[in-house]
Design goal:
Layout lengths: L1 H34 L3 H33 L4 H4 L3 H27 L8 H27 L4
Amino acid sequence: MVYMVLVLLHLLGASVWIGGHIVLVSVVMPTARRERDPRRIVEFERGFGRVGIVALIVQLATGLWLADRWLGGWPNILRQPTPASHLVLAKLGLLAATLVLAGHAYHRILPRLDRARMRSFALYAWATTILAVLLLIVGASIRLGGPL
């Protein structure tokens, strides 16, 4: 029962994180760029930012717990390498890249966002979205033996 709740919370967090970024890059940013108005992006980020961070924290907490259960304990990740442990390490690497990109965009680019920086922010947003989808694919591969 606990395992099922962890998986559901992890998937819910992923849905919110990925969905929010897809809305950002496919709806909010094109409108903001067309209108040359960075305020649309800032307003979206103010609203989604709080929800997105909670979703990411839920994913991190549940993901670490699920990986511990899946691997039979964290020490086994290096002691007894398996395809699943390699995928968990890949997810941790993707997570680290996500935190660096999203954190830099949120703390450095977004507070100073103007027309000139909209393109730079768009690159960060697209990169974060792509990383989120890759995290989903790698995570599904751990459980389902998918494409990786």
